[in-house]
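Dear colleague,

Following up on yesterday's call, I've attached the two folding results inline so they're easy to grep. Please treat them as preliminary; we haven't cross-checked anything against experimental data yet. The first protein's sequence and structure tokens come first.
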Amino acid sequence: MLRASFGGSSHVGVFACATDDCVLVRPDADADLVEALADELAVPAVRTTVGGSGTVGALATGNDAGLLVSNRVTTRERETIADAVDVPVAELPGRMNAAGNVVLANDYGAYVHPDLTREAVLAVRDALDVPVERGDLADVRTVGTAAVATDRGVLCHPKSREPELEALEELLDVPADIGTVNYGGPLVGSGLVANEHGYVVGEETTGPEIGRIEDALGYID
């Protein structure tokens, strides 16, 4: 486990995106922090922007099949990412293209913003090679901010309803539970970066919150 912040912000999930193969990190992050992220998540770190923005956690997502990024990505950024990873890099089409915010995915399924177009849903399906369903969590439509999923579990907004958790368990094929980050923050996706190897939380996250994270995401045997 690693507690961290980016430039004083505990919203680590806004500035970094992890899969089981890599972690994308904003390029101006402190070198020691980038090294610590790579060590904790046991994957190579890739410094990049997406569409000129350092909010790469909001603009990218992925699984073992591929990475999905905002269609505002530049050719140079896409090449930087593609050169560093062993999976295809695809773009999320349409106006709602902040992939990290609107897509929640693991290797078994993807849950997406309820207003995502059919074209975008098909792009998610093809890029990540998983079944896709639309929906929200606790009335939050940006499901990538409302939850964090790995191949061991999914941690959700604390006001997520039981039918929503059950639907996620069915789609993502992992247990689902609720929790918070950064001393009560409900948008867990903004304050948590996780893969099967480890996780990084905002520095304001409390011990009980960490216990809930570790239980929900399967770090406790």
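Below is the second protein, in the same order (sequence, then structure):
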Amino acid sequence: MALASRYAVPATYQFREITAAGGLISYGPSLTTAMRQVGIYAGKILKGAKPTDLPVMQPTKFELVINLKTAKTLGLTIPPSLLATADEVIE
């Protein structure tokens, strides 16, 4: 993120935390949801389930986060249609 910022390059990221820290846009799986699933799996294993018997899980919740402050710094205008579909807009 620092390199993209230094050279004023618009960049996208996988996790919302990077966008919250100053990145432009992120689209990726929700880390909160993924960590909750890890906790559920750990609970099942602690209750005696065999890890090999547990299904492989794929992310089901994805988040689009846009940082308007960063967009303004880069001189970019985010289309209203993209803002309307975002899960979170950081101003």
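For the second protein, one point worth flagging: The mean pLDDT is 92.

Best wishes,
A.L.
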